[in-house]
Queue: 4 jobs
Job 1
Amino acid sequence: MSKRISLTQYLVEQQRRHGRITAELRLLIEVVARACKRIAISVNKGALGEVLGSASSENVQGEVQKKLDIISNEVLIEANEWGGHLAAMASEEMDTIHVVPNRYPQGEYLLLFDPLDGSSNIDVNVSIGTIFSVLRKVNNQRGVSEEDFLQPGKQQAAAGYCVYGPQTTLVLTLGEGVMVFTLDREQGSFVLTQEDLRIPEDTREFAINMSNQRHWAAPVTRYIDECLAGKEGPRGKDFNMRWVASMVADVHRIMTRGGVFLYPWDKREPDKPGKLRLMYEANPMAFLIEQAGGAASNGSQRIMDITPAKLHERVSVILGSKNEVQRAVSYHLEAPSD
Ligand code: AHG
Ligand code: MN
Ligand code: MN
């Protein structure tokens, strides 16, 4: 069997041999991976670790927080505060940004995360995950504010997710392809298990919450209706459907065997662009998907081209196999605007 490369070795090589990443970014990724290992331990303990169930609090989006949402957020903050690689962090679970305290050196990077994605699946023992996005602090004046975070996703220096499923898997991009690392529990380290992951351009599998069907806009209804019509319909082929309700798990399946994922705008709350959050859910996933040869759009615009107006901005999401995303987007572009 050929020798396996650890995440540490991979990152050192990226920094030393290829000069692709700075020492600070290398440390940042290592620290995030270490935090994910700690979160994985809590997830695995489940009821034994008394980590299941809800906390008695709500986050800034008005969602009831689960104990693991809060634990994972704290693990990521604590792990990343002291290394000198970050200026500030932002999270789904915090109203405002968390600036690195004065007692530690400030670095040039900004880290955003969804500490625990798929919260509704925690208590039922279904795959969940952590999503993260790395930006550079563009202005190099002293101090850091929320404004520094409001950059389009195309400016991400790195992004990734860790899925806590049957295996704990870290999927990472530094802007030159997508690498997959599997946690070796005996060794306690992430090991490179797939290089340059590519998503098939075509697919017969879609992921959408069908219970919202009656609220969708016409282009989404058209796209899904055509998939459902199968061999006899305009697509001339049968489609399968999957919906895990953990974006991490749905995206990981698409990364592995292709597919298209939609969480579109709908009529229930017309003023809200969508459910998913742009900066720590859609952007990192869009970066990974594009780096693997797929596409990610909000129906009219590439997700990574959107300049956010606020930290917790939401967005409509269509991502995955390129040809399928392009088709769904073309239906949006053809639809009469009202
Ligand atoms: P989170 O648990 O971080 O709030 O994210 C949940 C998101 C996403 O992971 C998933 O795709 C979607 O919500 C599921 O939404 P529905 O319950 O509406 O299907
Ligand atoms: Mn999420
Ligand atoms: Mn979350």
Job 2
Amino acid sequence: MNYCKALEKQGKVILDFTNGEPDFDTPKYIKSAAVKALNDGKTGYASIVGVEELRKAISKKLFSENNLNYNPDEILITNGVTHGIFLAVMSFLNEGDEILLPDPGYTVYPEIAKFAGAIIKAYRLKRENGFQIDISELQKNITSKTKMIALISPNNPIGSVIKKETLAKLAKLTKNKEILILSDEVYEKITYDGNKHHSIAEIKGMRDKTILLNGFSKSYAMTGWRLGYIAAPSHYIEPMMRLNSITTSGVNHFIQWAGIDAFEKEKDECNIMRNEYKKRRDYIISEICKIDKLSCLKPEGAFYIFVNIQDTGLSSEDFVKYIIDVASVALVPGSAFGEGGEGYVRFCYAKPISEISEALKRIAEAIKKLNINN
Ligand code: PLP
């Protein structure tokens, strides 16, 4: 990113596909709700657990959309899902405890786990398995010290959606073990081709072992609002609420009122954005197939393409450096998401098709030059 900024200072126009955020503005009805809340004086501290009306709205949403029963006391409002990850990992992992993390997977998890002094064990999501979890491999990583398994579905950076059968197998695997499941569902509403998102909390016996994390950033184009939530049995909410109290004193008050309207007054906004992402995904996949030495699997959700660059002979870092220097297109090296990401780059397609098309043209040209020079 710094390198990108330095090039821009030199006058280069960089097409930046590194950010994992919608290019849509937050829907108007949500912005209006925040303005109304401000004008209504929702400007003092909110309750540490979060505004009760929002927790009730989330409880209703979890029931109607996910078939999950959480009462409002089992919900904690957080400063985005990132903060939810922090609260859960810091509250339940001690030094030396083991956490199983998906590799490739969202970069924040290993950083927070390290901060807690936990030992990270990666479970690989491999291309040959369609980037799905290999249960027998995951099982090999479970020891007496395993305290937590993180699931990210749909996954960032690879866009895979964990199948319900896999969740059932995971439930069986952890049945008599004291292992907490951290279920990151932030891309829940961004899935394609009938790949419906399922929470592991839906599986019999799992609700009481699951810390469900979700938020508004991706589905409602609200990254800058910093609004998320945790749903979990109240004995898990309690320590996280205490940590929330001493780290943030709660989430911005008026923003929480906008969160209520996000759910309750939604018409078709999430679907419209999702359909647009799907168009872009289909476009980018068809175009990448035409570029020499690049390939990718069709992501089932989120808004990233994990492009296989192994045939270029470059490492993912070197490829990213080459493409930014030669094509002025910024991508994220797959190695940033774990060892399993080496040989790939992440391309976020939450951008207009015109920009995606220009970037792909430039990348294709740059690869042609690479072929000539080699
Ligand atoms: N979880 C995953 C898997 C993500 O990819 C991201 C952001 O990229 C987050 C959580 C962060 O979400 P939030 O903006 O709600 O903190």
Job 3
Amino acid sequence: MSTGEDRRVDVAGVSVSMCHYVDGRRVDSPTTFETRSPNDWDVVLGEVARGDDAVADLAMAAATDAFDDWAARGPAGRAEVLYRLADVIDDHVEEISLVETHDMAFNLESMRARLAHRGAENFRNYADLAVDHVEREWDSKGTHNRIIRMPAGPAVVITPWNAPWMLSTWKVAPALAAGNPVVLKPAEWSPLSASLLGDLADEAGVPPGVLNIVQGIGEEVGAALVADPRARRISFTGSPEAGRHIGRAAATNLVPFTAELGGKGPLVVFADADVEAAATKAAWQYDDSGQVCLAGTRLLVEQSVADDFLDRFHQHVDGLVLGPSTDPATDIAPMVHPDHVDTVLGFIDRARDNGDEIVRGGGRADIGDLWIQPTLVRPRDNDSEVVQREVFGPVLTLQTFDTEDEAVALANSTDYGLSAIVYTTSPERAARVGESIRAGTVWVNTFLVRDLTAPFGGCGISGIGREGGRYALEFHADLKTLQVLDGSTS
Ligand code: NAD
């Protein structure tokens, strides 16, 4: 490990550090891992520092040392810093967008138009919420009671490779606003936009140790961070499998953790729906090559409109353009990594072996090894693996139903419960079905519209706890009741 030295590479004209960011300085590791561009897998973007126990220890020590001062600033003092960081992010939207699109193949135009700014919004929103928050005060049983939110201590934040910029900022912002210094570990398949966040934090004057970024492999440095007893909160987004490991580490140290995990969302289309709107949105579920936890991957369509829906769906999917994420014409960019392509193709092969019908797609697209054709599977029955397990690729299933009860039963028939999409024009049905589906978010006649103050998370194996708005701020705080006997102080 070498402290204070930086190694940088040029990614599409943007200088990006390949090192960790600890205590306001760059720190290198003796070993590295490669990050490549999914748009052209022959291109090695950089050799990123591969964190180990020593770096985890250094980062946790920095966050622990920074805690008292950061907590003592109070919500308004911290908000000043976070507003500056938000402004700096807004000034660097182009660089963030370019790095993300090359590192992870996130659509460049979406980054420029929405998601790079969303990072700034995350910091502003949580700063606002923390400042505006007023805790309850009340008199009872001859005492005056006041609730106080205490910052909990250093938070370890672990993020997945899909939407890395959006998710890192979404999870770091509430921790910092609540007064907890952060050690962020981004995913090893898309580490670079998080590295940029270190530069932007520097530019915004975030005090040393308040935001630390450690690069590396989940089972190595990630495991070391979550096992460190100095971590007082763990905020994780990723797969249920890794979530279980992290939950075990959290249990050992008795540390609260939130886990935002996989999804297998239904997209339910009732006969009374605007079928064209539903079919358009169903085709959208192939966006980002289906590498979206919230995607409605199980199309559940009322039998009487199934043919009409399917005709329209095919028309929309026929019009989707596969290409590099940097091309504005592209609808479906490459998958993140060849290993993930193999995982997704494995699901398709097993579906075929199971007797599921491959209605369209079903293999690699001819434009390159990292693209999979938008695939639609009609499963043999509801127990098919492709219905029951998250594929996290451009693979949707199609099932039909005859009654509302059947639709709800199918919607609730997996172990997941992250999100659902419902198409209906009936307000009564929207309310009934919306209430009956077990999921953290149910959208009716829309998709992916997010109010950052709403709770966010999953039921079942889709997650534990809620992030978003005040829910995330509460997670990052220890609540105290201060109770003073009436008349005992003057
Ligand atoms: P993953 O679980 O493999 O990895 C996620 C992160 O955890 C990575 O940074 C990884 O390095 C780290 N990690 C892995 N094992 C670890 C361990 N033992 N200890 C500590 N850290 C460890 O997930 P992924 O493949 O990167 O992401 C895809 C998954 O994330 C999908 O299941 C997707 O649905 C889910 N996801 C969920 C949401 C949500 O909001 N619910 C959002 C995005 C992605």
Job 4
Amino acid sequence: MSAGNPPKPLGCQVLAEIPPDYVPAVQRIEDMFTVTTDKLKQITEHFVSELEKGLSLEGGNIPMNVTWVMGFPTGNEHGKYFTLDMGGTNLRVCEVVLTDGRGKYEIVQAKYKMREELKSGTADQLWGFIADCLGEFLEERHLRHSPEKVPLAFTFSYPVTQPSIRNGILQRWTKDFNIDGVEGHDVVPQLEAALEQKNVPIKIIAIVNDTTGTLIASSYEDPLIQIGSIFSTGCNAAYMENCGSIPKIKDKNLPPDTPVAINTEYGAFDNERKVLPLTPFDGEIDRASPRPGQQTYEKMVAGLYLGELLRLVLIQLHDTNGLFKGQDISRLRQTHVVDSSFLATIEEDVSEAMGDIFNLFDRQLGIKPAPHELKIVRYMVELIGTRAARLYACGIAAICKKKNIESCHVGVDGSVFNKYSHFRERAAQALREILDWPPDLKDPVTLHSAEDGSGVGAALIAALAVERSDGSLLS
Ligand code: GLC
């Protein structure tokens, strides 16, 4: 271990407690998943140059999408806006009224379950379903037959090229979505055609990424926020860049010090596989995904993949070392049977008997682990969760370095960030190592649970866009 690295938390203890014939295999996995301080720094350095490259005319792996959200809200934004968030499991529709004063708003919302099949169905099925949900929501708000079209901000959290704030050409699906006929097309006319067909009176006035929504909503409440980030099914961040530092929009001749939000889409970091410490398990996850070779960083870090990583590690320990000997592991062999909340629950159980972990395996997988197996499982989860948090910190540290930010608040949203209890402290520890903060210095960059990006954040973005267009966006 090189100087400055944190001590391995449970490792030595676990190795002393498990049967000796497991030790080499467990140590091998430990080595694969341990990311040293030096490696974190090396990854962050490369990350900074890739952020720069994404802003250049030539571009790079990281898209660095210009969102046309120009600057932070002032607190004087007003009006009623509808927002739609197409998440992985739910569709969330809100009516947001921005009222007087910074951080003040009223919100009414509804959620609609998105069937799993929609993720790999046809574009018509997707847009038709969304149009039906929006129609239902307007019905409830007594606006189904409104003579005026209702303005809507659409949180569409995938990489899009934005010729303007109300256009978004899908670069590629991420998070294992795989719907034909959308990549390479503007999603706005596609959804508007479905709305038209069903006579739903809605006009889309802004396309918003969840990270940009988070950045704007969080800064509305807390002026120290400079980065908005999501750690959930996917992993990504947005921040404000000066137009003068974005060579790829030079032809727009914008004032160089005008800020514009950049949705980094840095889940695509290191698709060239130059610096990330990939393991054979990461390779397996990539090969099984609908877009192999894409989102290399995200696949090592984000919630959608953490359960799969654990599953593959456990299967390997079963096949090579007889973990869960004599048990039927057929359920464990099914893809995506383990999700990130499974890992969070395992890490919560720090008891000697590990009864919660035992019950979880019994209930969800039909496996009754022996005591030494429970220890191994908990350690594997700790390794996978710690690696994710430490690699997550590299993206945040890279933005800070690129922008010379010495201290700021980062607004973070997403189920994994909010529910995986150790994540925050592990990421904070990694930031400390990468950014070389002296031991007596209180963390200058801190992660905070974010405000509602796809509700109030999207509504604020709509209000800012309407203001900039002098109202023409609404006509
Ligand atoms: C994926 C998407 C990105 C989104 C992130 C978090 O990385 O490509 O747009 O912000 O997931 O939801």
